[in-house]
Amino acid sequence: MTESTAQGAGIAPENACPIAPVVDIVFSRWTTPVLWTLNEYGRQRFVELERRIATITPKVLTQRLRQLERDGLVVRTYHAEVPPRVEYEISELGRSLAPLFATLADWSPNLDRVEQARRAYDARTGGR
């Protein structure tokens, strides 16, 4: 059933594709690198995350961490020291995504085949 058919039939997109809400949460821009980094390297300070995910801006990292904390996927711990220290770690709920990340990592060698398919398609269609 296509999206337009689903909408025409009055079926909410999440019912037409029950994994759509999961994809929206887990695979929104920057979520996967943040969760993967916290899962892979453990508790991190903001600066450590920023260094490990070199292409993310501080503003976007702050926004993403807040959203992940709100979603229950990341735990923020504030240490009232001088200077104050804040650490982020993946929550148990976030850790439950580890098998998904492992499966995606196992699939990643197929990216070469995707690139080959793209080149073949572009050659056939003139890149359109």
If you had to describe this structure to a student in words, what would you say it looks like?
With 128 residues, the chain is mainly alpha-helical. The chain has a domain at 17-96: Arc Repressor Mutant, subunit A, CATH 1.10.10. The protein is built from nine helices and three strands, in the order H-H-H-H-E-H-H-E-E-H-H-H. It has helices at 3-8, 13-16, 20-26, 31-41, 46-52, 58-70, 92-95, 98-107, 111-125, and strands spanning 44-45, 74-79, 85-90. It has a three-stranded antiparallel beta sheet. A hairpin with a 5-residue loop joins strand 2 (74-79) and strand 3. The longest helix has 15 residues, at 111-125. It is globular.
| Shape-level CATH architecture of the domain at 17-96 | Orthogonal Bundle
How far is the N terminus from the C terminus? 26 Å
Counted by DSSP, the helix tally is 9
CATH superfamily of the domain at 17-96: Winged helix-like DNA-binding domain superfamily/Winged helix DNA-binding domain
> Quick one: biggest sheet?
3 strands, antiparallel
Give a count of the beta strands, DSSP E runs of length 2 or more: 3
State the shape.
globular
**Share in helix:** 55-70%
Domain HTH hxlR-type: 17-116
GO molecular function, one term: DNA binding
Organism: Streptomyces griseoruber
Protein name: HxlR family transcriptional regulator
